[in-house]
């Protein structure tokens, strides 16, 4: 089996053909010539399939599950992938356990699910909260259809044991989905750890250039994939071919970007650890992080995000304003470093001075120097 870098460069590409481009161009088509029986046609109508998506889907499946056959479906955003997975697989009267500390749109999606008769429970990522919530629902006689994990969590960076939770869930017929956005398939492979579904926002590190909205779900279970595929087709939650092509092109540098970002994240985390005004510092790659041992068992790279808290809102805003190499923006995983005060959105249970910092691929020495100078300016 090839290495991650080779796989990322080659995944989803056709065999070399004389005088043809190595990466096929995007296919813009609402419909295709369709003689005869449509059930045997690879392409017929643009809402059902497109050669450009198919190539990206094959690439994502290779990255998420290099040792065993899997399928992937791409969507126009990460939330489209998350919503399709949850709402297509869980029916009215069934239960789910969701992260209480995950991506801030989750409470809004949870309300939509509850409006459709789905029973929703929440639990924090760290500790035994998820297992406790699962067992409590089972003890009440509920049919818990899906356990949703987000590890590391966004923005708090807590880590949970995917393999242990999957074993427990599967004993009672509960599927496990893992939001793998922050780790990327090069940093963590939920399907190898026992999860049924790996879901992610391709907007972040997968594409990595801050110019595409995209999402995906991958699974080794063809029945789950087909259920979600039908949902995508019926609702029309399809990506554009240009977005799919850009994301596929970006995969070629995924390993290089992920490695540099992880290096930068650890360097900045170590610099932050030196400062007395910094509290609540989290990064799974720090040996002193409370989840480091667990993260080291199930992750191969610790991600690009560092989170920490400055004394108050004003202090955090002075720090962000003083940074010269870091954009004040609300995404993560891109080639350019970004940071933001998460409390400005109101959707995360974090202190007013909480900062989520996403490291790009700049030189680590420059980033560390910028952070130290900005911290000094903010304190002064």
From TrEMBL:
Co-factor(s): pyridoxal 5'-phosphate
Assigned EC number: 4.4.1.1
Family: Belongs to the trans-sulfuration enzymes family.
Coiled-coil annotated spans: none
GO cellular component: cytoplasm
Lyase in keyword set: yes
One example of a Gene Ontology biological process annotation: cysteine biosynthetic process via cystathionine
Signal peptide segment: none
Top-level class of the enzyme under EC nomenclature: lyase
Protein name, as recorded: Cystathionine gamma-lyase
GO MF, one annotated term: cystathionine gamma-lyase activity
Keyword terms of this UniProt record: Lyase, Pyridoxal phosphate
Residues annotated with N6-(pyridoxal phosphate)lysine modification: 204
